[in-house]
Protein 1
Amino acid sequence: MCPESTRRRRRAAAVGRAVAIAAALVVALAFVPGSAAAQSEGIGGTVVVAEGETVEELRAVAGNVIVEGTVTGDVSALAGNVYVRGQVDGDVAVAAGNVEIDGDVGGDVAAAAGTVTITEGAAVVGDVTVAAERTTIAAGASVGGDLTYTRELAGETDGVAGDVTRDDSLVSTGVEVGPSIDPFVGWLSAAYAFVMNLLLGAILLAVFPRFSDSVADRVANDPLRSGLIGLGVLIGVPLVLVAVAITVVGIPLSLVGAFAFALAIWIGIVYGRFAVAAWLLSAVGVESRWLALVVGLVAGTVLSAIPFVGGPLNFLVFLLGLGAFAAALYGLRGRRSPEEGVGRQVAS
């Protein structure tokens, strides 16, 4: 067998391995709760190896996989986006919409992706084999082995120590990942987000039913005011947090505030969809908190998939929910104590 034929088989096998690993991950992790990568595997909206964190191996199915710390073994992932910003001592084998190597990889990189980018200062010790619509090697990037790519190559290849080869036969093995992987990842992320939103909504309705009703009433009775309040909160709170963070003493407070604000945004999304659905259902004579929650979350998920229109509509619904939530919280200021207010909510 000629050397070129052998090399082609090895390249195809590398990309095929990335796709096979991705398929295996779907089966192995389909029912694993999403979390940070401390246990070296996960499924969720975002799986992160944080800066300063070290794991032995990372296997993930997620919307985003981010490596900012150290992985002493291999990284295997099926994701919408994969970012390697830290250090991976082993191989990186992924199927993704976009892959960005911005750190150091001690082994090979095999990717089936829409786009693959190796940024300035990034280093891959072994081979880079990708089946992608576009591969970009930035000036200052380093590849210790061969670079094998499909379709379009951009950037500079001066930092590639081995051969640079275009091999479109990889597409037959790596498949057309841009159109085929992205829809699946989008569906997976949407399903995960729906479940998490449903869980949060169920907690809010079960623990604070009267408060939840007051949020829905504010949206139904004065949507313009709720929306304007939501816009004001969305713009004003980050400005306040930045102002607080300017002082050294205020940094811890701003971090706590940022976490609370992120939680408020999530609650605003859920309350917005619940409140608008409750408003519309009441117009046809249906009064049910739980039905409104399910209908609102399903409608929000469907809207997210509609180009051009879905995003703006979901944003408007979010502003309504955030504004009504903020106004309802402000309305609790007259309570004699927080404990009493919470007690009345639970009792109801």
Note: The chain has two domains: 3-175, 208-347.
Protein 2
Amino acid sequence: MLRNNKSALSSAPVALATGWQRLLLGLSLLLVAAACSSTPGNIGVGLPSADANTGAYLVDTLTIRASTVLRDSIITSGSNLLLVGRYKDPQLGTITAKSYVTMSLPSNFTPSQTQVFDSLVLVLKPNTYRYGDTTKTQTLVDVHRLNSFAPTTQHGYASPKLTPMSGRVRAESVNDPNQVIVRRARRNIPTLRLRLASAFGQELLDAGKARLLTSQEQLDARFPGLALLPGATDEAALVQFAANSETAALTLYYHEPTDPATALNYAFALSTGRHFYQAEADRSAIAGLNTLTTSLQQIPAALTTQQTYIQGLLGLQTKIEIPYLTNLRSFGRNIIITNAVMIAQMPDNTSGARANLAPPARLSLYRSNRNNQPIALVQNTRLDSDVTATGTPVTFDYRTDVANLAGINQFGYRWSVLEYCKDVLNGTVTNDGLLLNTASPITPERVVLGGPNLVNNKLQLRLYLISNN
């Protein structure tokens, strides 16, 4: 629809008769273009009277297409984090996170032949990040040994398809069965100390006595690493651990028989070793998303109940297309787009009630190619009212005042697509659409957005233009 908008534009007079005739001609061409599309919501419903003073119009019925895209090449080996847990997400299915770490030798481990094993403890430092339901109890890390680690020449990816660990993880747990920690994953846990099986600790001590742990290569060969897994029945929350802390280590305790009161220890560091984490979701029961299996595959919102999804760690992004944007040229050679704002709202019952399930605080926008690959960040996407002291021009915030813009009580996002629309009309970029992703794709926050044809909470584009022909 074209609406006159006096407040948004200047009051400079225009030649009404000629401008209005050209505008009608342009609108009729847009109607023809819109008729070629089977998607509802095209331009051309109820032409209002033109304003004789400004020639200012609001276009808010341009066709928008939205879909969910899978891009699973998310690298997690470059972060200083570990992620472990399982959470049953009503929108994305059951999400499972696992971490893999290697151990490092701070110095040669050469215990004396007489020293006696006491215990083996895995020390981890949780931070305050949780995603899921922290009111439920869960196993705080089930530890397994690895048969081999991923090759050192490869990145560690979040997708198990890209860094296969199947066959590398031993089936048996090395947790001490009498010391398994099962409790709520509260934010105030300062340090997690997991006592491991005595047989594993004795094996480490014996290898040291035999002088088989005097180099990193020997350690990697005999003890390739550890897998940090959720408990088999867990479905509470994903827990984040720091992987750059000096206190994150596998610590072996032992003593001299002649001096049992003096505790000796050796810490195999985890923070300086190689590590990465993975996440996967069982989407088998989620309509539409259960067919999203191939990287760069695209599922239209029409097949996912007019909703699209964003979850950085799982590689889910939302693609937005404005297929008839170039048809605005039909309004004449001298049209000026003064503003273009996209409003994305979260459908009812998709945002999560607890703070641990809050949607991403920020999103990033990329120009896409026709193969759904991101090719460039879209600059200047923030609206003036979105800018914060820590903000950057390539992200925009989750907002609680979208209701004021959309006329309904709903949370969501809004951002400018003015520069993109201008560039498309000027022919400097191709109109292959935009990709919306979390600003931090290595974390599991997700958001569900309404599609363009949803009855309520739908995706909207409000574009303002002047025709000076």
Note: The CA atoms of residues 60 and 462 lie 5 Å apart.
Protein 3
Amino acid sequence: MNKYIFIKLLFILTPLCSLAQPDSIKATTTTQNSSAKKWYENFSIRGYAQFRYNRLLETNENLGCEQCDRSWGDDGGFFIRRMRVIFFGQINKNVYFYIQPDFASSPASDRLHYGQLRDAYVDLGLDKDNEFRFRIGQSKVPYGFENMQSSQNRIPLDRNDALNSAVANERDLGLFFYWAPKDKRKLLSSLVNDGLKGSGDYGIFAFGVYNGQTANNPELNDEPHVVTRLTYPFEYKKQILEVGIQAYTGKYVVPKSNLTTGVKTNPDLNYLDQRIAATFVLYPKPFGIQAEYNVGNGPRFNKATDTIEEMPLEGGYITLTYFAKINNQILIPFMRYQYYDGGKKHERDARSYIVREYELGGEWQLNKNFELVVNYTMSKRRYEDFAKQNNFQQGNLLRIQAQLNF
């Protein structure tokens, strides 16, 4: 009986002892439990989707733009331009990861909505504030402001030909070093978070080595490209400006699968691929200017000799914007002019281009989750390869995009 009485007393006294614990002990226990994050609390998920229609007021169904939007022109219809889900997180004080697949990739004009990896990288910080960090994996090559700028934030529907022709899909596999002091990292992030169309935090100084064959393509010559970028955002009175310079060099191998039978090439298919570009940005508060220009050398089809040759290139763009907040909605009208005279190494026969294009439109942000862009394009494009040696197309079209942010 004594044994059973002892057990009963134990059940009665245990909760009483718990109630008698000092508040400091209870608080410590609660704090420890709340600070211990679950594994799934160390990363987040977000994404966006873009739906387009480009055929309104179209004047030339033969006008196309392979690099920017394959639903231009004949047989183009309603089109999912991007469908992206992003997984990211600071899983350790000095370790950050970012993975972004796109479920609307188009490997060919008659093949739509394929899943393809866009980004997959890890940032390794070297100090307590991660001012010095290495980025390992597939990510954007730090060349050009608009190339760095997310398509989710960019106002014109497509990137300019002049700088975007440097790196298809803006990405490659490599190792990159970024540095920016803590206050500049905060500023770079705020330019995106505050809706001012920033490029994101790619450091004040960047240096890297990468394969040079563009994203999701194997290395073909064991000679990595080298890139460097220096950019500096700063506040002046009530304005925010950014100036930058960037350059890269390497040898690009024209893939055999991109060659038309009969076109002449270098024996080893290797071509010098190098550029330098300057950037100027006046963030829209409320009037904005964004301008870039680059020069360099790269592979380009020469119709006079039916040969892919190493040739000079140049081109750039200027975009004017105005930021207007109306009640809880945002309207950003814009104008852009772009020019490019050069080759596109990743297209058929390193296709030769001369582009002159005007765009006029606006972005209407109904709320943080939905945006509508209307863009009227007036384009003159000469794009020639071995099969199409006198291909000049001129035309206008009205383009519409609905974007969902989640």
Note: DSSP finds five helices and 17 strands in the chain.
Protein 4
Amino acid sequence: MSKQIGIDLGTSNTLIYLKGKGIVLREPSVVASDVKTKKIKAVGEEAQKMLGKTPGNIVAQRPLQNGVIADFDVTANMLRAFFRNVGAVGIVSRPTVIICVPSVVTEVERRAVEDATYEADAKEVMLISEPMAAAIGSGLKVDGPRGAMIVDIGGGTTEVAVISLNGIVCSKSTAVGGNYLDEAIIQYMKREKQVLIGTSTAEMLKKTIGSVHPSADRGETEIRGRNLRTGQASVASVNSALIREALREPVGQIIGVIRQTLENTPPELSADILDFGIMLSGGGALLGGLQQLINERTGVRVTVAKKPLESVALGIGRVLDNQYYDVIDFRGR
């Protein structure tokens, strides 16, 4: 029998929800392949370990950029491998799939997601807006006339949307996500400390001592990198205040998008948001002090989802259980 699965296809990570079993796969959205033969060498966690370490004949890459497909064939191969990992594809069976797309996406980009999923051996493909899935997975009521605001900060983008009556009333998106924040830390370390660090080190700093509000400072740590003056390996001390300064500009962009969305919200729904607040989801919701900073800059109460990293996948799971069937877009082939 055809299995029903939901896919949170993210720039950084892909999660798969299998109806009746819950989330059955969490893997980095990374593929390693042979440059000449195009043969897949590794997918997910195994491929991520190869980033920046591969020989010339193998390339490890993220096939999605800023929430959309950058390499069609690699994305299709990655999805096919994930389908096999969760047992969704059999000799005579293919899965029915609900997959998320950004709220601000072109028709070409939507079609690319559909086609890549069909190419990965899906039987049927339905689309759902990423902020809608995040809102449902975060526990917001989206089917009534009351306005609900979701801010989903993923690896490639930040999606902000106001939802009412199973539809998105207004939304904004920015290409500032977790990966952009990591790059901001790398560039700041180069300018201020003259130390070059890698993406994994920048992500570690963001997660362990990263702070965007003084109330959430978490001390300091030492990191290893390459001194740009001498070219030698060096050790540098980094504290939360430095990370806060490094993230000032990109976090300001995220808050700017939130404020723009609030300004575009109809007055009746604005009153609801003022009463019930803003919901934060996605990995970026875990950034230290972000909840307090948004509250100060907008004057609106902010809540972090119980499982921010899984909100989109859990939302699609609830749709699979037919609780919010009206929010999907199905056109078929």
Note: The longest strand covers residues 167-174.
